[in-house]
Amino acid sequence: MNLAAIAEKTRSSVIVDNPGAEVTDAYASDLLSDVMGHCTGASVLITIQNHLNTIAVCTLVGVEVIVICHGRPIPPDMKEAAEREGVAILSSPLSQFSASVALAELAHQ
User: Fold this and answer.
1) pLDDT single digits (tens) 21-41
2) What angle do CA 35, 31, 33 make, to 5 degrees?
3) SS3 of residue 34 by DSSP
4) What is the pLDDT of residues 32-70, one digit of tens each?
5) What is the pLDDT at residue 41?
6) pTM value?
7) Which domains are delineated in the chain?
8) Residue 21 near residue 2, CB atoms below 8 Å
9) 36 in Cβ contact with 60 (< 8 Å)
10) E strand residue ranges, 1-109
11) Cross-sheet strand order for the sheet of 43-47
12) Rg (the chain; Cα; Å)
């Protein structure tokens, strides 16, 4: 899955771009310690955690794309860290469940 397809399927706005990002899986969690323990770098992270620590965890596990759900605003420090670390941020109006279902459908096309 590429960033454009993920954005289209989850009805997301691209806040921070990473056009070279490729993912093969998705992981939905709001517990960052869970993400550190179980999420692979080939995943897009689906979450509502819209803060700087989310970027730190994604950098640690190698995640290149985050979908922030429920249209939560992206704070400037999170955006700056994502740009610096090469992590794409998408903002979706969908719930985590709906975004997960949408990406599961995309993965099986």
Assistant:
1) 989 999 999 999 999 999 988
2) 50
3) helix
4) 999 999 998 899 999 999 999 999 999 999 999 999 999
5) 86
6) 0.95
7) 3-107 (3.40.1390.20)
8) yes
9) yes
10) 13-16, 25-28, 43-47, 65-68, 88-91
11) 13-16, 88-91, 65-68, 43-47, 25-28
12) 12
